[in-house]
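Batch job 17 of 40 flagged for manual review because the log was empty.
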Amino acid sequence: MRRLVVEALRKDGHEVTEVADGGRLLVELAHQVTTNYEQVDLIVSDVRMPICSGLQIVEALRSAHCATPIILMTAFGDDATRARALLSGAVLFDKPFELDELRATVARLLDGGVVAR
């Protein structure tokens, strides 16, 4: 799934940094902050990942007052997961989903639009 999303977003002209787990995502984000490297415009993450879940990442970023748009994907979209995602301001996609819908949501979020799901 990650490979498919990465390829689709690159095809749309987005610069994509791909990481394998939540720990690597946190390292990448910390590196960008400490080096003043170009900041991430959008995060697309799975909810269930090794080391650190997508929900934990969203909540940590929001606690640090980071307003970067975040899209979470899950095959386990129970009510509790959905509520945590919505409260943190993330957009949640239940797997399987239409790739074109994800691409359109990415475009809207990068243009500053609000996405209701």
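Reviewer: the log was empty due to a logging misconfiguration, but the result itself is present. The longest strand covers residues 70-74. Unflagging and moving on to job 18.
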